[in-house]
Amino acid sequence: MPYTNILTETRGRVGLITLNRPQALNALNAALLAELNEALAAFDADSAIGAIVIAGSERAFAAGADIKSMANASEAEMRSSPFIASFDNIRSIKKPVIAAVSGFALGGGCELSMACDMIVASESAKFGQPEVTIGVIPGAGGTQRLTHAVGKALAMEMALNNRTLSAAEALQHGLVNRVVPVERFLDEALALASEIAARAPLAVAAAKAAVNAAFELSLTNGLADERERFFQLFSSQDQKEGMAAFVEKRKPDWKGK
Ligand code: CO8
Question: Binning pLDDT at 50, 70 and 90, where does residue 1 land?
């Protein structure tokens, strides 16, 4: 079924999802999030896809959750709405997800970019958690992932006082992977995704899961988790193929098995 709030396409082994509500600067409403989740799940299940890029437009990655759709909601309605829960589904995606961010990445938009595994930012990218200016706080990771990324001092300023980060500041504070000229932000994100998508799929998924485990587990448990994933890869065909290819001085032919 065609989507109305996003666009999807494939570029080689990369699945590209473009947020497409330009009239609202890609503000995230329930319909958009449902489509995003559906598209993510479809790419995740497709063995022809090795990595996923979520992009916005040059002007806006996403200017937050859709304020107009929340404005009159009661506490009970927000609690029972699938809206925020659906935001969390991105955590279940096993393949790497790269955010291609240009322009506004505010509120839920900033949170969406941080829920991705990497961020490629354009020079015009602007990150912020302005929720306090409309009487709420971030509800989808904006106090948690942001604090892990930039540290307490800056996260406090951003969440309590709408301090925004330029692309250069985001790079300096470790929020994004790289900053590129506006006209190249999508191509750079696709190129990075394409490089990763050409690597051993099971190993890439294990590496993603293991790095993410560092945010959940103690060091002892995280190391045990890493070692377990390392051992498991020795029962994959790709481990045999990758090491044989090294020894035979040829390119590996990954099977994703
Ligand atoms: N929700 C709904 N509509 C929006 C949003 C939004 N977040 N942001 C922009 N729009 C709409 C505007 O209302 C406007 O529509 P219209 O033309 O019909 O009036 C259109 O987009 C263009 O916006 P502006 O005219 O305001 O454009 P400017 O260039 O003047 O300003 C800004 C751009 C600075 C980005 C401004 O639009 C703005 O401040 N937007 C709101 C930013 C914000 O506060 N975001 C946080 C929202 S709350 C949130 O994200 C909570 C997250 C909780 C969990 C998330 C789960 C998904």
Answer: low
By C-alpha distance, which of 116, 105, 119 is closest to 185? Answer: 119
> Which atom of ligand 1 has the smallest separation from the CA of 140?
54
* CB distance 54 to 117 below 8 Å: no
Q: What is the DSSP string of the chain?
A: ---SSEEEEEETTEEEEEE--GGGTT-B-HHHHHHHHHHHHHHHH-TT--EEEEE--SSEEE-SB-HHHHTT--HHHHHH-HHHHHHHGGGG--S-EEEEE-SEEETHHHHHHHHSSEEEEETT-EEE-GGGGGT----SSTTTHHHHHH-HHHHHHHHHH---EEHHHHHHTTS-SEEE-GGGHHHHHHHHHHHHHTS-HHHHHHHHHHHHHTTTS-HHHHHHHHHHHHHHHTTSHHHHHHHHHHHTTS-------
Residues 6+ apart with CB under 8 A from 7: 17, 18, 20
Pocket around ligand 1 at a 6 A CB cut-off: 24-25, 27-28, 63-68, 84, 87, 104, 106-108, 111, 130-131, 134, 138-140
Active site residue 108: yes
The CA distance from 25 to 35, in Å, is: 17
The Å distance, Cα 216 to ligand 1 centre, comes to 32
Q: How confident is the model at residue 87 (pLDDT cuts 50, 70, 90)?
A: confident
Please give the share of the chain, as a percent, with pLDDT higher than 70: 100
How far apart are the C-alpha atoms of 141 and 136, rounded to whole Å? Answer: 13
Q: pLDDT class for 84, splitting at 50, 70, 90?
A: confident
